[in-house]
Fold:
Amino acid sequence: MTHHNTDQMKAPHASQQGQAPRWEIESIFPGGSKSPQYAAFRQEMVKEIDKLEKALAKLPKKLDETSRPKWTKWILDLQAAYEKLHLASSFAGCLTSQDVNDEEAMRIDAEIDDQASRWGMMKATLESFSVKASNREWQKLLQKKGIREISFHLDEMRDRAKMKMPEELEKLAIELGVNGYHSWNRLYDKMAGDLRVTLDDVGQKKEISLGQNAPRMSDRDREVRRDAFEKMVGAWKMRENLAAIALNSQGGFRLSIYKRRGWEDPLFEPLLNARMKRATIEAMWSAVVKGRPQLKPYVDAKMKYLGIDKFRWYDQEAPLGKSDRKISFDEAGRFIVEHLKSFSDEMGDFTSMALDKRWIEAEDRTGKAGGGWCSRIAIRKESRIFMTYTGTFSGLSTLAHELGHAYHGWVLKDNPPFAAMYPMNLAETASIFNELRVTDAALAASSNFDEKLMLTDQKLANGLTFMSNIHARFIFDSRFYEERKKGTVARERLNEIMKEAQKEAFFGILDEHDGYHPLFWASKLHFFITGAPFYNFPYTFGYLFANGVYDRAIKEGKTFATNYRDLLADTGRLTTEEVAKKHLGVDLTKEDFWRDAVDRVCADVAPFVKLVNQAD
Ligand SMILES: [Zn+2]
Structure:
């Protein structure tokens, strides 16, 4: 431990002087990236992976009476190694985030990646072994103690493998994907990173990246927003043809693989990843399409307040109202605990404990990474939260959000690692739930006009993002894949598809003449993420699912707290529909649940309109 030694000594007292606290990670491994205990732990972990590889080579290739106990032990050891890898990697993540210049931590992180890929190779071998095993033998294996508890995960792995191409072809596809498929993504990222726009800074020309330009899209001044938008579009016009090649190429690659696997629907894989049925996503979008016109009066009132007569793409993030109140970290913590406890004592107590034990890195200082996240330290049944707290309401909301993730981790603490892995669409349930809870509590407690306007607008702006903006991306992806099946889709056509998608998803609120963003398919990096196709609907799903759960919490009160807890605990071992059926008693393939969720989102429209009318 060298350069951040002195800072850490001050940390325990920092919060008493009003400064947001640093976290406590010394109890995990003392001494940061130079920790001898951390080094010893990693060494031990490598030895275990060595042992696992050797054991795998000797394991009988056939699953039967005699090999069953051997495979059982090996699978459980593989799972245990995963938990250690996860701890090693989480800790490295803590170190690289708290100090972006910690080079030793970065080196360790890369070293762990190598071990993780060795682990991944063994998991792939288990996958192909599972396909070769007879159903009868496989079922017998799943009955074994320790394996039974993770049978959902193992069955899912086997079912997926069965739907793929023969092992050799899958291996070839993965190998070709590194320099083919995924290269398009890397090329796109490089291209986006290199793009610059020129600003006029008091007569001085200044070049900034698109990342630096992005916050200008939510400026209070409409001229700044418009300028940011137009310059961004201008920059992408220069690369439109290249972005079209990248999108067509990666889309084509994916479709070729799907064809070989016999997967006709481009949504097949994304739905598999989300552990959900097509009927569910259809019911969700259908309820969204029917319910979102309720947002129209919100947009009208917002335009009235902003004094504009046309709603354009760059008005989506226009901020309204404000809050000058400074909230200390301790005050934020107390507020969150109070309003979680009023729903569930357990949630309140857990949150108190996380704050008391200093699981949160919140100090506002230079040299730390941006963003916010929560990482489980599963072996220790703990979590750590990383963020920068600056005393605003948005900081309080982020803190509540991340504490929701930590609570989700807490209820999963007794699940074996393979029964604690949840899909992206269920990952945000607890975090958004917490956000909604504290935002509504803040709204109820506030008598300040600007503050109420700000909070209500932010809630509804989210609603518009998830129900319209994200839906437009989903429509675009769906149509793009349909047309891509027949051949390359020209860039003019991509623009057309995007415009049509926006027209539909924004139900006529964007200005017909120049309110759209046809180049959105090029400017949004989500369309180019090869690791996760259709990187859109899980967002809307997660948001509406959390709103639906929140709706139930409001209607049923404290009696719902246990159901909520059990729901979270099952996110790693049931399909999405099963989670909802078992703990909410609802059928996600039907619209009812989704309608309630959409109505919950739109419940803020009337109060918002009333607020705006008060202003004049
Ligand atoms: Zn989150």
Remarks:
- Strands lie at 196-201, 204-209, 360-361, 373-377, 382-386.
- The pocket of zinc ion is lined by residues 401, 405, 428, 431 (CB under 6 Å).
